[in-house]
Amino acid sequence: MNKVKITAIRQTVYEDLMAKYENPIEHACDVRVGQQWISVDGQRPEGMCPAAWYAMREFVESLAKGEGNFYDGWMQNPMSAMISCNDGFRPFSFYIEMMA
């Protein structure tokens, strides 16, 4: 199995949707831009947000097995993917890539 690096690339915040639909909450997310994790054997890295992991798990597991080329050439690096978490108000985009 290969190691897979996960990097938090960007967060988008939809304040208009939050104001209209979300109940006020004080703390929603601990992820920070530039934060990185290493998945070993396709397992969730310690400290990785469980909801974000749920969104990317299958891609990380595939890369850990040496599989890639998702969606027939979607990514410039075929052994990578750009995945977003499921938070509709403040989604984070994560770049995941197989480590050499």
Described by strand count, sense and barrel closure, the largest sheet is: 4 strands, antiparallel
SSE ordering: EHEHEE
Q: For the record, give the distance between the C-alpha atoms at the N and C termini, rounded to a whole number.
A: 11 Å
Query: How big is the Rg?
Result: 14 Å
Percent helix, as a range, is 10-25%
What is the chains' assembly state?
single chain
Number of helices: 2
Structural class: alpha+beta
Reading side by side through the largest sheet, how are the strands ordered? 2-1-4-3
Let me know the number of strands: 4
- Backbone shape: elongated
Number of domains: 1
Mean pLDDT: 95
**Into which percentage range does the β-strand content fall?**
15-25%
Low-pLDDT sequence parts: none
Can you give a write-up of this model?
With 100 residues, the chain is α+β, with helices and mostly antiparallel strands. The protein has one domain. Helices cover 22% and strands 24% of the residues. It is built from two helices and four strands, in the order E-H-E-H-E-E. Strands 2-1-4-3 form a four-stranded antiparallel beta sheet, covered by helices on one side. Strand 3 and strand 4 form a beta hairpin. The chain is elongated.
Give the SSE map.
Layout: E1 4-11, H1 15-21, E2 36-39, H2 50-64, E3 80-84, E4 92-98
Antiparallel strand pairs: 1-2, 1-4, 3-4
How would you briefly describe this protein structure?
With 100 residues, this protein is α+β, with helices and mostly antiparallel strands. Helices cover 22% and strands 24% of the residues. The chain contains two helices and four strands.
